[in-house]
Amino acid sequence: MKNIAILGASGSIGQQAIDVIERHPEHFNLVGLTVGRRVDDAVAIATRLNPKIVSVQYEEDVARFSHLDVKVVYGDEGLKEVATAAHNDLALNALVGSVGLSPTIAAIENGIDIALANKETLVVAGELVMAHAKKYGVNILPVDSEHAAIFQCLNGEDQRQIKKITITASGGSFRDLTRDQLEHVTVEDALNHPNWSMGQKITIDSATMMNKGFEVIEAKWLFDLEIEQIDTILHKESIIHSMVEFVDTSVMAQLGTPDMRMPIQYAFTYPNRIEHDAPALNLAEVAQLNFKKMDLERYKCLKYAYDALKIGGTMPVVLNAVNEVAVAKFLNNEIGFLDIERLIEEEMNAHEVIQQPTLEQILAVDHHYKTKEYEV
Ligand code: NAD
Ligand code: MG
């Protein structure tokens, strides 16, 4: 029986993780969960699964659990408390944004393995988080489908024999539009992802291709690769989740229907596998798999992510923080779709990089760019 805490249980990944747990009560026990605003969801989950601890974002929501036998905490401290809950074998970090960093660090320092969906953690502090995980002997198990794919392809392989990895990209909701057409797209259009149903922020990140940029950075730290070893390719069917080429030119890929419950479940059972009742992949039905070279001029956010990774230090923190703010403004109809990349480019150009930043410096830069007044 594995004891699991879920940070962000009401989100897209969080809900699918709850589904995985409820389908396999003989394997998994939910010990703790956190939600943001969706307190009703947390009350419902706590009633069904009887966790020991729940965290909500706001103190006024604590009373909503008074009829249940559960410890209730709140705010940023609450996130850390759930991440480190007693008897917790594994914490799934399914928070969105760099708010996921501090609870990840807290879990690591308590020797708790992490199933990591929250890619922003590795974007802003990948080097530090991986070094910390090594120091405390903690596994960081990737949930992002591309990284879960690479992780599976690397099972039993010698890291030194990797030539390169190729991360596949569906292309997001605007994959068939030109840059001119992008100028006037709406929030509704952007939220209409062709293959995956996900939270709003990552759906916009997929449309700008920033999501792929984040995944390049995530891969760098998870698999200890050089930037030149990380390639991306457009693959609109989202069937091949990513691949690894070895020094002898052999390529290993992981395939499956687009269903995040598979990588979530694998992170929960690693290194074992258990049944998963999603529809099996039927390649005869899929019939065709398409690929197209990635275009860094068309997808500027991906280029900015490569740039930020090359520059290093606090630049990826800026990339992420300005992106978080810009995406929120776009979702709020305050700025246009292409203003997202404009804002990021401007702020990256003006940023004075701190190399080898400490956690405090990372958090300070993150806070600065999240709270700054932007002129758009
Ligand atoms: P989501 O928006 O659906 O859910 C996010 C969760 O985080 C919610 O429970 C929300 O309440 C919580 N949250 C957000 N801000 C918070 C705060 N300040 N304090 C406390 N809780 C807070 O997002 P999602 O789509 O589930 O994505 C979660 C993470 O997983 C992201 O980093 C995303 O990039 C990554 N990811 C998601 C998918 C997917 O299919 N959805 C796939 C791969 C990776
Ligand atoms: Mg992904």
From TrEMBL:
Signal peptide: none annotated. One of its GO terms (biological process) is isopentenyl diphosphate biosynthetic process, methylerythritol 4-phosphate pathway involved in terpenoid biosynthetic process. Residues 140-223 form the 1-deoxy-D-xylulose 5-phosphate reductoisomerase C-terminal domain. It holds the Pfam family DXP_reductoisom. It is an enzyme of class 1 (oxidoreductase). Mn(2+) binds at D144, E146, E215. Its cofactor is Mg(2+); Mn(2+). 1-deoxy-D-xylulose 5-phosphate binds at K119, S145, E146, S170, H193, S206, N211, K212, E215. Residues 4-126 form the 1-deoxy-D-xylulose 5-phosphate reductoisomerase N-terminal domain. It comes from the Bacteria. One of its GO terms (molecular function) is 1-deoxy-D-xylulose-5-phosphate reductoisomerase activity. SUPFAM superfamilies: 1-deoxy-D-xylulose-5-phosphate reductoisomerase, C-terminal domain (SSF69055), Glyceraldehyde-3-phosphate dehydrogenase-like, C-terminal domain (SSF55347), NAD(P)-binding Rossmann-fold domains (SSF51735). InterPro entries: DXP_reductoisomerase, DXP_reductoisomerase_C, DXP_reductoisomerase_N, DXPR_C, DXPR_C_sf, NAD(P)-bd_dom_sf. The keyword RNA-binding does not apply. Its EC number is 1.1.1.267. Residues 255-370 form the DXP reductoisomerase C-terminal domain. NADPH binds at G11, S12, I13, G36, R37, N118, E120, G199. The keyword Lipid metabolism does not apply. Keywords: Isomerase, Isoprene biosynthesis, Magnesium, Manganese, Metal-binding, NADP, Oxidoreductase. It catalyses: 2-C-methyl-D-erythritol 4-phosphate + NADP(+) = 1-deoxy-D-xylulose 5-phosphate + NADPH + H(+). Pathway: Isoprenoid biosynthesis; isopentenyl diphosphate biosynthesis via DXP pathway; isopentenyl diphosphate from 1-deoxy-D-xylulose 5-phosphate: step 1/6. NCBIfam families: Dxr, PRK12464.1. Catalyzes the NADPH-dependent rearrangement and reduction of 1-deoxy-D-xylulose-5-phosphate (DXP) to 2-C-methyl-D-erythritol 4-phosphate (MEP). Belongs to the DXR family. This is 1-deoxy-D-xylulose 5-phosphate reductoisomerase. The gene is dxr.
